[in-house]
Amino acid sequence: MNFIKMYKILELEPSFRKKQVEKAIFGLAINDWDVVTTLPKTLKEKLKKECPFKDTSKDIQKELIKIEENVVKARLNFTNDLVETVLMRYKSRNTVCVSSQVGCPLGCSFCLTGQNGFKRNLNSFEIIEQILFFKRYLKKYKENVTNVVFMGMGEPFLNYNAVVKAIKMINSKDGFNISNRKISVSTIGLIPKILRFTKDCPQCNLAFSLHAPNNKLRSILIPANKKHPLKKVLSVLKKYQIATNRSLMIEYIMLKGVNDSLKDAEELSHLLKSNLKSIFVVNLIKYNETGKYESSTFDQIRKFKNILLRNKINVVERYRLGDSINAACGQLTNKNFLHIMGKN
Ligand code: SAH
Ligand code: SF4
Hints:
Blueprint: H1 3-11, H2 15-27, H3 41-50, H4 54-60, E1 64-66, E2 71-78, E3 81-89, E4 94-97, E5 101-103, H5 112-115, E6 118-121, H6 124-139, E7 147-150, H7 160-171, E8 183-187, H8 191-200, E9 205-209, H9 215-221, H10 230-244, E10 248-254, H11 262-275, E11 280-286, H12 298-310, E12 315-318
């Protein structure tokens, strides 16, 4: 769908037409202009001609794969840039993990997306299209998208304006109508953008990808840490906590022999307790092996977790869905795309 063209056409119409169309497309996930009975015939014909539902219904659909019971991955084709997006179906919610960039320029050593380089930023409509795609898919099961996480390909804060614009569209009562509290943005920690996000989206959830208990190790794993040193990042995250009173998610992938020792757990506890307000939860994430590192053993993760608990830190273990189809976080890349058609 060419949303840019669509909005240009709607600009010439009274504003309630825009609302009607947004309700139909984003709220009801229609994929045929004919079903929008509220529109006058001339406008409908124009939209049909200029903005056909070609992309999602034909081109993209065939890129859908579903292998694991609760996870569906789709590869969407945006003007020849392939973008991956993942649906995770839980009992009480359906979460779409969206990409914000084609690739990622930050090159974190553990992340497959980062290792494969960067092509371009996505625009807000391309971000929205990923959610819309799964909204249409879920309609078949009489279900809806309930949550959105910006944890797919790319660093959302390197594409800040498009991401915030997309968030506003996700919130819109006339559209998806998903509240900010059901939207999470994950960042590697870009200081000025955390400050802006605190002002622009105080009700959204923020996840910080920490992955190391000290500045030195973090700079080895995450090149961006050199420009955004850990203590400074933590100090703006504390400002976020104070301003929003929202719990912060701290993401920590468990890398065998790299950041998972019991000493690391003590150091991590101290780092967080002395630099943040106590409203945060540490997510210990099982590393999806992408070549360079090994994931920590379950036993080690348990021991690490116990130290955090003993230090009175809220902690959860997370096993990312989608591992077997390379749909888990950090595994999104257009290479190795398992092309299994007709399985949905
Ligand atoms: N650029 C943002 C958002 C995308 S990555 C960020 O880095 O936060 C989403 C999450 O997946 C991040 O916490 C990231 O560190 C993590 N991740 C990256 N590679 C991973 C891997 N191979 N296994 C598990 N998690 C990974
Ligand atoms: Fe980019 Fe996030 Fe991957 Fe780092 S972990 S390379 S910031 S997508």
